[in-house]
Design goal:
Helix content is about 30%, strand content about 25%. It has about 350 residues and is an alpha/beta fold. The strands form three sheets. Strands 3, 4, 5, 6, 7, 14 and 15 form a seven-stranded mixed sheet that branches. A six-stranded parallel sheet has the order 10-9-8-11-12-13, with helices on both faces. It has a two-stranded antiparallel sheet with strand order 1-2.
């Protein structure tokens, strides 16, 4: 007799999600099975529900990315996973598994590759833990995508250099600030005024109101007054590339500059001479991607959470209803949130 669990499935493109029982899979080589306790929501989730993008190979599907929970089973040959019963966080996505619903986050039991599962410290709740995985790895991938290796932690050569994080109050932006600080850079960020002090607690040296008419000149003047070099930026949100390039034009001098861009880059996006603009995305090659994910999770993230040098951010906004409340929670996320990450508790 097969064991089943509850899932919020996507029966067709455009949704809505519907509750159904699924057969609980056994983990194969390199996989673990997690009993899910909390799920954090990301914009990609409502894009997949509403538009089927990124592409979903077949339906019914199980979508979602961010989970925390209890490690329930370990597949054969897995040597890097925590012990069974350990509290963990993970990126759970069917995107890298040909759409297999066994790997989607929106369910009570989920398969996850061992390289993206790490212990959750006892002083961090499941709800706070769930906000971490995809935002943290996206922030770290932004730096590697423009040639900054993760091995450069606290590089003393970075102390006279700065990075700009445009969109610092978003979940990815908050981890972009934290990881840039760990790389040893001086960090400048943009956000609404009500979020400025919070971003400074995460490691931003200076924060600017992105809605100010003179925000570009404010940042350029601060860079020059602080005597640092700004040739590197991460655009976390739409609408940030043009002002970012204006700032770099005034600060990079004759040197080249690099911008990691997390939203999809439109074909007609603005450009700047001697400036590389890179879409922020993990390596497409499976071997390289697994290596990168292992370094992100089992190196930086695991060490950072254990030492307290990385903290969950932004705060979790817990929505009611569990799996049955996901449609409403996704609608709230689509309507827009600031300095919060929507989480459902199972």
């Amino acid at each position: 007799m097969s064991v089943t669990h509850l899932a919020a499935i996507l029966p067709r493109e455009g949704g809505p999600l519907a509750l159904a029982n699924r057969t609980t899979p056994d983990p194969g080589p390199n996989d673990v099975l997690i009993e899910v306790k909390a799920i954090a929501l990301n914009p990609i989730d409502y894009h997949q529900r509403d538009r089927g993008f990124p592409p979903i190979p077949s339906y019914p599907a199980v979508i979602g990315c961010d989970v925390s929970g209890i490690l329930a089973k370990v597949g054969p040959g897995v040597t890097t996973a925590p012990a069974i019963g350990t509290r963990v966080i993970a990126v759970a996505t069917s995107y890298y598994h040909n759409g297999s619903p066994d790997y989607g986050a929106f369910q009570e039991k989920v398969l996850v590759p061992a390289e993206v599962v790490i212990p959750l410290p006892d002083d961090i709740t499941f709800e706070d833990g769930a906000v971490i995985p995809i935002a943290a790895v996206t922030a770290m991938t932004a730096w590697t995508s423009i040639g900054i290796p993760l091995s450069a932690r606290f590089n003393p050569h970075h102390k006279e250099q700065a990075v700009l994080v445009w969109g610092g109050a978003s979940s990815v932006g908050s981890f972009s600030i934290q990881t840039a600080r760990m790389l040893g850079y001086r960090v400048y960020a943009t956000a609404s005024p009500r979020n400025h002090e919070y971003l400074k607690t995460l490691g931003a040296d200076a924060v600017f109101d992105y809605k100010s008419n003179d925000v570009v000149s404010q940042i350029v003047e601060a860079i020059k007054a602080d005597g640092v070099q700004l040739r590197t930026a991460h655009c976390v949100v739409d609408g940030g590339l043009q002002p970012t390039l204006e700032i770099l034009k005034a600060t990079k001098g004759n040197a080249s500059a690099k911008v990691a861009h997390s939203p999809v880059l439109p074909p007609d996006h603005p450009t700047l001479d001697d400036t590389e603009i890179v879409f922020n995305y993990p390596p497409l090659d499976e071997v390289e991607r697994k290596k990168h994910m292992f370094e992100c999770f089992h190196g930086w993230l695991s060490d950072g959470l254990r030492s307290g040098s990385l903290v969950p951010s932004p705060p979790a906004q817990i929505e009611k209803g569990g799996l049955g409340g996901l449609n409403e929670a996704l609608d709230k996320l689509r309507a827009g949130v600031s300095r919060t990450k929507i989480v459902v508790r199972l």
